[in-house]
Design a protein that fits this description.
Elements (H helix, E strand, L loop, with lengths): L2 H22 L5 H28 L3 H19 L31 H17 L3 H26 L4 H8 L3 H6 L5 H22 L3 H40 L4 H25 L1 H4 L7 H14 L20 H6 L1 H10 L9 H24 L1 H10 L1 H20 L3 H7 L4 H40 L1
Helix pairs in contact: 1-2, 1-5, 2-5, 3-4, 4-5, 5-6, 5-8, 6-19, 8-9, 9-10, 9-17, 14-17, 15-16, 15-19, 16-17, 17-19
C-alpha cells in the first residue's frame, strides 16, 4: 500500500459505510440490521487482509494480471481517449502491442479475464487507480450478493438467522476469497443477486420488470465469468421453486401428479437448452465436460516441479475422462472439495484457514450422519425442498470442482460458491436431528406419565 492509499482508504471506507448504512435504515427488523452491519465490516476487514496478502505475501492473478493490465488500460485511456473503445470490445480484439506484460497476451483471449481487467480500468477512474480501493469495491459488490442470499434464506427460516449468518456472512474462506480483485468476488455477487431475483420472479411474482433485469445481468456475468456455476445452480433452484409451489396445493393427489410432471418438463427444457447452445458452451457442453476435466488434470500434472506446483495434489483415484469414470471417482472428488486440504497438506496461510474449516465441516457431517443414519438422511433430503436444493447443488458442484482441480491454491477459491449451501444443508439437517430428539424425549415423558397414572389405578 502506498502513502496515497493510507490516506484514501479510510475516506472510501467511510463513503461505503454511509452508502450501506442508508440501505440498512430501510430494514425494520433489528436482526437484519445487526447482521447487515456485521457482514459489511467483516467484508471490509477481509478486503484489507486480501490487499496485504497479495501485496506482501504472494503473487497471483489479482496483482500480476487484473490490476497490472487494468491499471495499464486505465492509463492508456487517460493518455488517449480513443483507447476507451477497448472497454466495449472483446479481449480478443485488444491490441497486443498495448499489453503491458507480453506474458499476459494469452489471457486477453479469455473473456472472463478481460471482464475483470475491463472493470478494474473502469473503477480506476473513481479510485485513482488504487489497488486497495478497487479491492474494497469488489468486496462490497460481493457483500451485496451475499446479503441478498442471506435475505433469501432468512425468509425461508427466520429462526435460523444465526446459522445462516455463519454459513454466508462469517465463513472465513468465503469472506476472504470474495473480498478482492478476482473473478470469484463477481461470481458470488452475481449468484446472490440471481437467487434473490429469481425467487422474487418465479415464486413471489413481485417487481417483475426489476427482477427480470437483475436475472439477466446476474446470468450474463456468470455466463462470462464462470458459466459452469450457472449450469450447476439453476436446475436445482428451479426444482426448489417447483416443489415450493407444489407444496402450497391443498389436494394431495394433485401435488403427487404435478411434482413429477413439472420436474420432467424442467429437465427436458434444460437439456434442450444445453443442446441448443452446445457450440456456445464449448468446453462446458455436456458432451465435452468430462474430457475437459481430464485435460485440466493433465495440465496440472505436467506443471509438477514448477514454483506454482508446490500445492498440487492427487485425488488418489484414476480418472479416464469418461462420464462413467467421473461417477466412479465421485465420492473421492466430493470429499476432496469439502474436506481437503487436510491440516498436514496446508502449505500457506490461506490453505491453513481452509484446512481448519474443512476439518470442522467433516466433523459436523459425521455427527449428523451418526445421529440420523444414512436412510433417514436421504429421506430428509428428498422430502424438504430447501435441503434438497442446497445439498444437491453443493454435491454436484463439489463433484466437478473436486474432479477438475488438483491444486489446493485453486481449490480453496473454486469451491466457495458451494460452501454456504453445503453448510446450510447441514444446519437444516441438524434442525431435523434436534426435532427428532425432542419428539423422542416428549414421547418418553408421555409414556412415563401414563405409567404413573396407571400405578394408583392398579393398586
Amino acid at each position: 500500500m502506498t502513502a496515497i492509499d493510507i490516506f484514501l482508504v479510510p475516506v472510501y471506507i467511510l463513503m461505503l459505510y454511509l452508502f450501506f448504512r442508508a440501505k440498512r435504515r430501510k430494514y425494520t427488523d433489528p436482526l437484519l440490521k445487526k447482521y447487515h452491519k456485521q457482514g459489511f465490516w467483516i467484508k471490509i476487514l477481509a478486503s484489507l487482509l486480501f490487499v496485504l496478502y497479495y501485496s506482501y505475501l504472494t503473487q497471483g492473478d489479482s496483482t500480476s494480471l487484473y490490476q497490472y493490465e487494468g491499471n495499464n488500460l486505465y492509463h492508456l485511456i487517460l493518455h488517449n481517449s480513443d483507447n476507451f473503445k477497448y472497454i466495449f470490445q472483446s479481449g480478443k480484439d485488444f491490441d497486443p502491442s498495448l499489453v503491458k506484460d507480453r506474458f499476459n497476451v494469452g489471457y486477453f483471449r479469455d473473456e472472463s479475464n478481460y471482464m475483470v481487467i475491463r472493470l478494474d480500468a473502469l473503477f480506476s477512474f473513481v479510485c485513482f487507480g488504487s489497488y486497495a480501493i478497487i479491492n474494497l469495491i469488489f468486496a462490497c459488490l460481493a457483500f451485496s450478493g451475499l446479503w441478498k442470499l442471506y435475505l433469501f434464506f432468512y425468509e425461508q427460516y427466520p429462526k435460523l438467522h444465526k446459522q445462516f449468518a455463519i454459513s454466508i456472512l462469517y465463513f472465513p474462506t468465503l469472506a476472504f476469497w470474495s473480498a478482492g480483485l478476482l473473478k470469484d468476488s463477481l461470481c458470488i455477487a452475481a449468484l446472490g443477486w440471481l437467487t434473490y431475483s429469481l425467487y422474487g420472479l418465479l415464486y413471489k411474482r413481485k417487481s417483475v420488470i426489476k427482477n427480470c433485469i437483475l436475472v439477466f445481468i446476474s446470468a450474463y456475468f456468470l455466463t462470462i465469468l464462470k458459466v459452469y456455476i450457472l449450469l450447476a445452480y439453476v436446475p436445482f433452484f428451479v426444482l426448489f421453486i417447483i416443489f415450493k409451489n407444489v407444496q402450497s396445493i391443498r389436494f394431495k393427489f394433485l401435488r403427487y401428479f404435478l411434482a413429477p410432471t413439472l420436474i420432467a418438463l424442467s429437465v427436458y427444457s434444460f437439456t434442450g437448452i444445453l443442446s441448443a447452445y452446445n457450440d456456445e458452451l464449448g468446453a462446458y457442453a455436456v458432451e465435452d465436460v468430462t474430457s475437459s476435466i481430464s485435460n485440466l488434470n493433465h495440465v496440472l500434472e505436467v506443471r509438477t516441479g514448477r514454483e506454482d506446483a508446490a500445492s498440487n495434489f492427487s485425488l488418489g483415484a484414476e480418472y479416464d475422462g469418461t462420464f462413467s469414470g467421473l461417477i466412479k471417482i465421485a465420492p473421492v472428488a466430493v470429499a476432496t472439495t469439502f474436506f481437503r486440504p487436510f491440516i498436514w497438506e496446508a502449505h500457506k496461510i490461506s490453505q491453513l484457514m481452509a484446512a481448519v474449516e474443512s476439518l470442522v465441516l467433516m466433523f459436523f457431517t459425521l455427527f449428523i450422519l451418526l445421529k440420523s443414519g444414512p436412510f433417514r438422511l436421504i429421506k430428509w433430503i428428498l422430502s424438504d425442498p430447501l435441503i434438497m436444493y442446497c445439498f444437491l447443488f453443493a454435491l454436484v458442484f463439489g463433484l466437478f470442482v473436486g474432479a477438475s482441480t488438483l491444486n489446493f491454491g485453486t481449490l480453496v477459491r473454486y469451491k466457495i460458491p458451494c460452501l454456504p449451501f453445503y453448510a446450510i444443508s447441514l444446519f437444516l439437517m441438524y434442525e431435523k436431528v434436534k426435532e427428532r430428539a425432542a419428539r423422542k424425549a416428549l414421547q418418553k415423558v408421555e409414556n412415563h406419565s401414563q405409567v404413573t397414572i396407571l400405578v394408583p389405578v392398579i393398586s
